[in-house]
Design goal:
Blueprint (H helix, E strand, L loop, with lengths): L8 E6 L2 E6 L10 H16 L5 E6 L4 E3 L7 H4 L3 H19 L5 E5 L2 E3 L1 H7 L3 E5 L3 E3 L2 H4 L5 H11 L1 H10 L3 E2 H7 L4 E3 L4 H13 L3 H14 L8 H12 L2 H11 L10
Parallel strand pairs: 2-3, 3-5, 4-6, 5-7, 6-8, 7-10
Antiparallel strand pairs: 1-2, 8-9
Helix pairs in contact: 1-3, 6-7, 10-11
Length: 265
């Protein structure tokens, strides 16, 4: 059980699936300072839990995934250079903990996914959205600057032209537009979203954990600059898969025409 300092973040586990819920529906799940810290706490704990093989991130209620930062607390939490620096550090810890989580992460998106909500979704591996989802990065309407890493992540996912369109217009994009840009992986009817994501998560969690984890790491290395890639690490992870009990189980199950039962060893 994870001891959180806020009730605005919820963590629970269902078999091999961990769930992270942004629980601030009165503010369309806008993220406060305590929520950023809660995100880091949950992600770090899920990373340590070998029983969890996949993580789903969602927003509470039926109006929003995450609608960005909770601007109502900025007057108190960002009222000085020191306070702003502290806020940014806590928020960065939260997003980095999610980004670096050593399990596949799925963003289950419905309703508004705005500003920092897009950032949260981009730090998940797979984004599945309901057909009522709406996406926007309204920085240009607020006069905000956007840091290099945040812009680069969006460019990596949708390409330079679409990234510029998203930032330049600051408008809301439909789920269908987001799908066409590659911002999301799948779009499903709103009433089918939960079942679809649960099935996806169960499918992933039934696969060999070492193989899945190796692919997450290898893809992460591929998208790095050439000079920063650790190809030797990738080679070690591939060898680990072939030397695992799961590899033996997979071959045996295939020959016996049955479903493999993987243990992550």
């Amino acid at each position: 059980m994870i001891l959180l300092k806020t009730d605005k973040m919820i963590a629970h586990k269902d078999q091999h699936v961990g769930w992270i819920t942004f629980n601030n529906p009165a503010r369309h799940n806008a993220v406060s300072l305590e929520m950023w810290q809660g995100l880091a706490d949950i992600a770090n704990e899920f990373a340590r839990d070998d029983d969890i093989r996949v993580v789903v991130v969602q927003g509470a209620g039926d109006k929003a995934f995450v609608s960005g930062a909770d601007i109502s607390e900025f007057a108190e939490q960002r009222d000085s250079a020191q306070a702003t620096r502290h806020y940014d550090e806590v928020a960065e810890r939260g997003t980095q903990a999610l980004k670096k989580l050593n399990k596949p992460t799925l963003a289950m998106i419905h309703g508004y996914c705005i500003g920092g909500g897009v950032g949260v979704a981009l730090n998940c591996d797979i984004r599945i959205a309901a057909d009522n989802a709406r996406f926007a990065v309204p920085a240009a309407k607020l006069g905000l600057g956007y840091e290099f890493d945040g812009v680069r992540k969006l460019v990596d996912v949708v390409g330079p032209a679409f990234a510029q369109e998203i930032f330049f217009t600051a408008r809301q994009f439909t789920a269908a537009e987001a799908l066409a840009m590659g911002l999301i992986n799948r779009m499903v009817p709103k009433d089918e979203l939960l079942g679809f994501v649960q099935q996806y998560a169960d499918t992933i969690s039934a696969n060999a954990p070492l193989t899945v984890a190796s692919i997450k790491t290898i893809v992460g290395e591929i998208v790095k600059d050439d000079a920063l890639r650790d190809v030797a690490l990738c080679d070690r992870l591939v060898a680990q898969c072939f030397n695992s009990a799961d590899f033996t189980e997979g071959r045996t199950a295939f020959m016996e025409k049955r479903k493999a039962v993987f243990t992550g060893r």
